[in-house]
Every structure is written in structure tokens, then in C-alpha cells.
């Protein structure tokens, strides 16, 4: 019986793919390519198909799981108004891949997929209710219950990035691009979040202020989400978590003062454990989770 799943993680900057076993382990190293988001649809799709052929390479697979930036129509398998991949707007990606490879395919929001992977195979394995935030260029959120992602009526559950915060929305304060923008506002220097992290570790007070502001905003976002869903654990994923030493302690301390006492007593906060392959493994996990419920 074929038990491998091709997992695909589609973002605005890069696309990563790999073949994942039913145990959540990659059968070989994943491969990533630039998304080339500004290119025509035909160019992006052609590169995607070539990538999948490369990773599949004769390995038996029962299906294809896709995790993508959204918004999405999961049932139709269609990417809707994705601002960072405009060429793929209203493109039925599952139909395309099913036709090319003769395998069933499912589509899932990338944040849902990543956190589902952690719930099935990673740091949250064995915990029924998992709240996850993905801290990358933007801000994503997912709620997993019983190894199933909560979708909502329009498949938009967890899209907290637009929630109001101070003089903007929460993504303006709790994301990688927020760190860069706020450092520029203070210093006039354009730097990526990773470089600002290095400056903070070296004692740059402006950089420290930016990271403290980020910590406070993240604690606020978590407080609302935690009190609503009462999870067993919180998982933080995404590239910004590589700088967890600069924000996790402060965020955790603030969170403790802002949520129900009983909730905090049982809550754990963890950094995602599946690393750069978390999106690929999560996409495969989303396929397995969805197929079980068809």
C-alpha cells in the first residue's frame, strides 16, 4: 500500500517540496526553488511541476498535500486573492496537479498546515488542542483540535493578522516585516529582522526597543487567542522564531498576566520543532488528515 505523500509548501518567496512518509519523515532531502512571484502564471506553474517531478523521482505516493499562502477555497482547491503571488490568483492548483500526476490533491492554508504537522509529528504530538502562530514575513494563526484544522465558514479561521492594534493592525507589530519597518522608523535604516536581532544581541538599544515592542504585541495577540480556545499548548513557528531568545521570555511573562489563571497553569509554549521542512511535512499531514474525513 502506498503511504508516502508529496508535500508542497508555497510561499511568496520560495516553494519547497518533498516526499513524506506516514511517520512524518522525509524520504529524501526536500528541494526548494524561488517562487518568482512576479512572473506569469505559466512560468510559476511550470517550475512547480518540474520541482514535484524532481522530488517524486519514482517514489510511490498516494497523494499530494499543498500548503499555500492564502486566502484559499479549500474545497475547490483554488488560491484566491493572494497578494504575494498575484499570478496564481483564482488558479485551481489541485486540479492542475491531479491532472499532471494522476494523484488526489488537497489544499490547505500554510499556517494550518505547519501547525498541523507539529501536532501530528512535532513538538505538539499527543496534545489534542494546539494553538499555533507563524511568525514570518507576516503573521499566521491556526487552531488544531484532534489533528484537524479548524477552518471556519469561508476557510478563513485564524486570519488574525488584520485585527486592530494600536494605530494599525496586529501584523504591523508582530511579524518580520513589522520589525524591519519599526527599526526603519526609529533609525532610518532598512534592515531585515535577522540583522536587527544581531544588533540587539550586540547591545543596540534601538534594536532592543523594536524587539520589546514585538514581544508586547505578540503577547496581546496570544492572550486573545488563548482565552478563546483554551489550548493545551502554543506552538510558535516561522523564521522569526530563530530570534526567540530576544522575545520569548518577555512575551511569556506578559501573557501570564493577561489570560485566565487556570489556563496559564496548564499551558505550555513551544518553538516549532520541524524546522525548514515544517511546511512540507505539514502539507503532507494536511492531506492525510483531510483524506481521513472524506
Question: Would you give an account of this structure?
Answer:
The protein has 294 residues and is of the alpha/beta class. Helices cover 38% and strands 21% of the residues. It contains 9 helices and 14 strands. A 5-stranded mixed β-sheet has the order 3-2-1-4-8, with helices on both faces. The protein has a 4-stranded mixed β-sheet with strand order 10-9-13-14, sandwiched between helices. Strand 5 and strand 6 form a beta hairpin. The mean pLDDT is 94.
CATH class of the largest domain: Alpha Beta
Structural class: alpha/beta
Described by strand count, sense and barrel closure, the largest sheet is: 5 strands, mixed
Overall number of structural domains: 2
CATH architecture of the largest domain: 2-Layer Sandwich
Beta percentage is 15-25%
Shape: globular
- Helical percent range? 25-40%
Element pattern in H and E: EEEHEEEEHEHEEEEHHHEHHEH
Distance between the termini: 19 Å
Tell me the number of helical segments per DSSP (H or I, 4 or more residues long). Answer: 9
Question: What is this structure, in a nutshell?
Answer:
This protein is an alpha/beta fold. Helices cover 38% and strands 21% of the residues.
Which secondary structure elements does this structure contain, and how are they paired or packed?
Layout: E1 5-10, E2 14-20, E3 31-34, H1 41-56, E4 63-68, E5 72-73, E6 78-79, E7 91-92, H2 93-101, E8 105-109, H3 110-121, E9 129-135, E10 139-145, E11 164-165, E12 168-169, H4 176-187, H5 193-201, H6 205-229, E13 233-237, H7 248-256, H8 261-266, E14 268-271, H9 278-292
Parallel strand pairs: 1-4, 4-8, 9-13, 13-14
Antiparallel strand pairs: 1-2, 2-3, 5-6, 6-7, 9-10, 11-12
Helix pairs in contact: 3-9, 4-6, 5-6, 6-7
Amino acid at each position: 500500500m502506498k503511504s508516502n505523500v508529496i508535500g508542497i509548501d508555497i510561499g511568496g518567496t520560495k516553494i519547497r517540496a518533498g516526499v513524506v512518509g506516514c511517520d512524518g519523515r522525509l524520504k529524501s532531502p526536500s528541494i526548494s526553488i524561488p517562487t518568482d512571484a512576479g512572473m506569469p502564471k505559466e512560468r510559476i506553474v511550470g517550475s512547480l511541476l518540474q520541482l514535484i517531478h524532481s522530488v517524486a523521482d519514482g517514489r510511490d505516493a498516494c497523494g499530494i498535500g499543498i500548503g499555500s499562502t492564502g486566502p484559499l477555497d479549500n474545497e475547490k482547491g483554488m488560491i484566491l486573492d493572494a497578494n504575494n503571488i498575484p499570478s496564481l490568483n483564482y488558479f485551481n492548483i489541485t486540479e492542475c496537479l491531479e491532472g499532471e500526476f494522476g494523484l488526489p490533491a488537497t489544499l490547505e492554508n500554510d499556517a494550518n498546515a505547519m501547525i498541523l504537522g507539529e501536532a501530528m509529528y512535532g513538538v505538539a504530538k499527543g496534545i489534542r488542542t494546539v494553538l499555533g502562530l507563524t511568525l514570518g514575513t507576516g503573521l499566521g494563526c491556526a487552531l488544531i483540535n484532534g489533528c484537524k484544522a479548524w477552518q471556519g465558514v469561508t476557510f478563513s479561521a485564524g486570519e488574525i493578522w488584520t485585527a486592530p492594534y494600536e494605530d494599525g493592525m496586529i501584523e504591523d507589530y508582530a511579524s518580520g516585516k513589522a520589525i524591519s519597518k519599526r527599526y526603519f522608523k526609529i533609525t532610518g535604516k532598512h534592515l531585515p529582522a535577522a540583522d536587527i536581532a544581531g544588533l540587539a544581541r550586540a547591545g543596540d538599544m534601538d534594536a532592543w526597543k523594536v524587539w520589546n515592542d514585538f514581544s508586547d504585541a505578540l503577547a496581546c495577540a496570544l492572550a486573545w487567542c488563548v482565552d478563546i480556545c483554551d489550548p493545551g499548548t502554543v506552538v510558535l513557528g516561522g523564521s522569526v522564531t530563530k530570534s526567540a531568545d530576544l522575545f520569548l521570555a518577555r512575551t511569556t511573562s506578559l501573557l501570564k498576566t493577561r489570560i485566565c489563571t487556570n489556563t496559564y497553569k496548564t499551558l505550555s509554549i513551544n518553538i516549532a520543532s520541524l524546522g525548514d521542512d515544517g511546511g512540507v511535512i505539514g502539507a503532507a499531514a494536511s492531506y492525510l488528515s483531510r483524506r481521513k474525513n472524506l
